[in-house]
Specification:
Largest sheet: 5 strands, mixed
Order of helices and strands: HHHEEHEHEEEEHHEEEH
Structural class: alpha+beta
Number of helices: 8
Oligomer: single chain
Helix content: 25-40%
Length: about 280
């Protein structure tokens, strides 16, 4: 029973969909299906119930999932310890800097318990690079937000947060219980510089081309609204600061918090970081 086959199995078991699992693994579906059937042959039992309604774990699959997760975690921990002994005991993490909630705190504690001798270098990224340095090769893994171009990257969603529109407290719309993007047509929005990831730019512009001041950081977004009366999207639940309010914005999907890394990266510390992130944000 190979570790690669177990990784394939865990992906299918967590997604409960061969197509999504194949996309997550950056492979096509036919070889993934063949690998799972070979694993079922090795086990001597079916791991999934396949039907037109979808895919579900069999009782044997449920047992194997728990054991496989434990085994893969031990394997990653072994590789990480070997890497530490060989002197490769540094992990560079890119972050957008807007998530200091309980999920991030749990992850930091869990990673430190698991890898007490690994030095974690945190690099703050501005809003122009949702990959937080992954594409530039300056970080190993990123805690960031989507959506953005995932070409060449592996991405796992950890959480999704509702969004709102950032307004001055004296704006005529500031007392509304909620707003639709269409109600902001004609308003000047803060926006990101030319060349910013198009998917990222489009999402934070409410899906429409906008005119307004160019910003690169959260503080610049807030100051653009405070000084100029422009508008823009932000997260609900974050304190916008004195003189500003956030009104819920309807008709747009929530903003996903994700962990991202370069596809095919075999660094055991990256694998461990991703596994711990998923567990930490599940609470």
């Amino acid at each position: 029973m190979e570790l690669r086959a177990l990784r394939y199995f865990v992906a299918v078991a967590e997604e409960l969909h061969f197509g999504r699992a194949a996309a997550r693994l950056h492979m096509s579906q036919p070889p993934l299906s063949r690998a799972i059937r070979r694993l079922e042959s090795d086990v001597g039992a079916s791991l999934f119930d396949r039907s037109p309604a979808g895919v579900a774990l069999t009782p044997v699959g449920v047992v194997l999932l728990g054991e496989a997760r434990d085994l893969l975690e031990r394997a990653d921990r072994l590789r990480a310890r070997v890497a530490t002994a060989a002197g490769a005991a540094t992990l560079t993490v890119g972050v957008l800097g807007d998530d200091d909630g309980p999920g991030a705190a749990r992850q930091a504690r869990a990673f430190r318990r698991r890898h007490p001798h690994v030095e974690v270098l945190v690099r703050d990224a501005d809003l122009t690079d949702p990959s937080c340095g992954l594409r530039a090769g300056t970080v190993d893994v990123a805690l960031t937000r989507g959506p953005f171009d995932e070409t060449g990257l592996s991405v796992r969603e950890l959480r999704a947060d509702p969004v709102g529109v950032l307004l001055r407290a004296d704006d005529p719309l500031a007392r509304r219980g909620s707003l639709r993007p269409a109600e902001l047509a004609g308003r000047r929005w803060f926006r990101f510089p030319a060349g910013t990831d198009p998917l990222w730019q489009a999402y934070w512009s409410g899906g429409e081309p906008r005119e307004g001041p160019v910003v690169r950081a959260v503080r610049e977004c807030r100051q653009a609204v405070l000084w100029n009366g422009t508008v823009g999207m932000t997260l609900l639940g974050h304190d916008p600061g004195e003189g500003l309010v956030v009104v819920p914005l309807t008709g747009l999907p929530p903003s996903p918090v994700v962990v991202a890394w370069r596809a095919g990266d075999a660094n055991p510390l990256v694998r461990s970081f991703v596994r711990i992130a998923v567990a930490a944000y599940r609470g």
